[in-house]
Design a protein that fits this description.
Layout lengths: L6 H4 L7 E5 L5 H9 L19 H6 L1 E7 L6 E9 L4 E7 L8 H15 L4 E5 L5 H6 L3 E6 L10 E7 L4
Length: about 170
């Protein structure tokens, strides 16, 4: 059974300090658990992440960042993203189920846009998971098309988006 917060807490803004830092190799298992444990990948979507692994090699190869929330244990990874520079793509973005609805995803997207700008990118592509489509609309991504199914790993079409990164 999943631990859940009352709805009033789930939809409230961030109430604890959130720190975003570069992911390190020791985060790999936590990030893998976030991906595999995501409620957005239950049921018919479960097969897409069943064997998925975020390894230390992946973290080293890409710009991966984690959102850490303060708690009684001194901090816990509650979300992360990975920015691939060539070609520019937001490869992964996950927020722990119990932390969703508090602005953490929006905070991660803003951080990603800042990193993309610093890297000289003007656009970042996203191939969205179907349940995340509304989120990407809300954080300013523009729908650009559809990524066709790629069975057996992903047997459904997915919306594609683009973040346009204005220069400062």
């Amino acid at each position: 059974m999943r631990n859940t917060l009352p709805m009033s807490s789930r939809t409230s803004p961030i109430s604890q300090p959130i720190t975003i830092r570069r992911a390190v190799a020791r985060d790999a298992k936590r990030l893998t658990r976030l991906v595999r444990g995501s409620g957005a990948y239950e049921g018919k979507y479960a097969a897409a992440v069943a064997g998925y692994r975020v390894g230390p090699d992946y973290i080293e190869a890409h710009r991966a960042f984690v959102a850490v929330g303060a708690d009684e244990h001194g901090g816990r990874v509650i979300g992360f993203y990975s920015l691939v520079l060539a070609p520019p793509e937001l490869d992964l973005l996950f927020v722990a189920d119990e932390a969703q609805g508090r602005g953490i995803g929006r905070l991660l997207v803003a951080h990603m846009q800042s990193e993309a700008r610093a890297a000289g990118l003007d656009r970042v592509k996203v191939v969205s998971h179907l349940p995340a489509e509304d989120f990407y609309h809300r954080v300013g991504a523009v729908r650009t098309g559809t990524a066709l199914a790629n069975p057996p790993a992903v047997p459904w079409d997915r919306p594609t988006f683009e973040f346009r990164i204005p220069s400062e």
